[in-house]
Automatic annotation (TrEMBL):
<feature type="transmembrane region" description="Helical">
    <location>
        <begin position="319"/>
        <end position="338"/>
    </location>
</feature>
<keyword id="KW-1133">Transmembrane helix</keyword>
<feature type="transmembrane region" description="Helical">
    <location>
        <begin position="258"/>
        <end position="278"/>
    </location>
</feature>
<feature type="transmembrane region" description="Helical">
    <location>
        <begin position="160"/>
        <end position="189"/>
    </location>
</feature>
<protein>
    <recommendedName>
        <fullName>Glycosyltransferase RgtA/B/C/D-like domain-containing protein</fullName>
    </recommendedName>
</protein>
<feature type="transmembrane region" description="Helical">
    <location>
        <begin position="201"/>
        <end position="222"/>
    </location>
</feature>
<keyword id="KW-0472">Membrane</keyword>
<feature type="transmembrane region" description="Helical">
    <location>
        <begin position="76"/>
        <end position="98"/>
    </location>
</feature>
<feature type="transmembrane region" description="Helical">
    <location>
        <begin position="131"/>
        <end position="148"/>
    </location>
</feature>
<feature type="transmembrane region" description="Helical">
    <location>
        <begin position="7"/>
        <end position="27"/>
    </location>
</feature>
<keyword id="KW-0812">Transmembrane</keyword>
<feature type="transmembrane region" description="Helical">
    <location>
        <begin position="350"/>
        <end position="369"/>
    </location>
</feature>
<feature type="transmembrane region" description="Helical">
    <location>
        <begin position="290"/>
        <end position="313"/>
    </location>
</feature>
Amino acid sequence: MSKKAKLTLGIFLLSIVYMLFFMHPTMWRDESFTMALISHNFGDIIRLDAMDVHPPFYYLALKSFLNVTTFWTDSLFTQVVFARVFSYLVAILTFITLSRTVKNLGVPRSHAIQWIGFFLAPSIMRYSTQIRMYALAALLLALLFNQLQHYDHSHKSGHIVLAVLFASLASYTHYFAAVAAGWMLFLYFIKFQLNRHDTHALLSSIMVFLIMFIPWGVVAYSQVQQVKSTYWIPDVTWGTVSGNFTNLFADVFTENGGSIYAIAFLVLCIYPVIWAYFNMSKQFKIGLTMVISIFILTTLTGIIVSILVKPIYIARYGYPVYAMLIFFVMTIVAQMISRYKARLSNQYSSYLLLTAFTILIGINVGFLATNQFTRYVLPVGNLSQSVQGYQENPNQAIHVNPKQSVNTIVEKIVYIKSINKEVIIKNFDIGHLVGNNNQALFHGVFDNVNVDMYKKQEKGS
């Protein structure tokens, strides 16, 4: 079988895995929040999101995508699956962008190990299909990185213009994507200074980047004040600090043996990184150094802000940079295998490394698939029956059992809204959903939860 055929087969099998375990219509609470928010018009999305703790670009982009791809149906089941497809397509574009970037850094071609290793790596499978903003933030950082590399080679101002655009869109997607973009621009400014390049264009781009964020920066300040008063992220401890660096590498093992798994995966990543510094092109090594530095600096920034202001950082906020780091590691592994095929002694060591990666990634995929099946795929039938029951119910207002899990309650609220019915629920703690306990945000987004109706029924009984 040719290499191209192997790559095609790998992509096909990978797509089957994603379709089976990730393109499901069930949602966890943050995804339900996303689908409820984008059910509003564009203006209300921005207004309501100003009360949340995330910028609005992802929500606007997702609503635009669904307006084009699901205009033919009112089924929320279909819309949820297409919302996951949006993240998956964005993840593929991220891979393609990074592939072209490393090609400019001296890596000659793509490789099946890059594809399979990247998409099956810890956390990539989850966040590349979630109905949240992390996959889009990763694409925007990859595009920013790509344009800075192009500018480094050509010094054409058009690349700086695009770099500012992608950096600004990243900052309007997630606050720590903005932090990562800022560090990337700053590090490349230092690089250009050391190389005695003209840095006026990049310095101007950094200023434009900061200025373009001012409109939402005013909103961000208000959001930070809300977070300072109450928020769900736990206080900073040595455990949370280490978790901020390792949880993305542990994925589903975060709460059960995650530290051991993460250490094992990180140790395996160290050898390819060391190998790259001895064997790969100078341009690639500089790019690798940039990505590692941005990942560390972004995480440290989150930890420092959490200590000085209020805990506002968890590991998944670093996913956009983590995705780039994992891509680089898998690219190195692919190059190790390619270069050592003709040298038997080195071939054994590289294939031993590949085997170890395969075992660890296989364990992660197995547990993640089991987790997805039991928590999201298996409940699809029950969800479908519930929604059908709600549709057949002659009442306009549906009572939802408050003793269910928060994920189930919020998911049902969104599905009930999709059939234009209201929800009555007793003693629901919205703090489980909106971390700052914002009543206005909750009732603005989930506008079919009729608290007044419940109170009237209580008085009349």
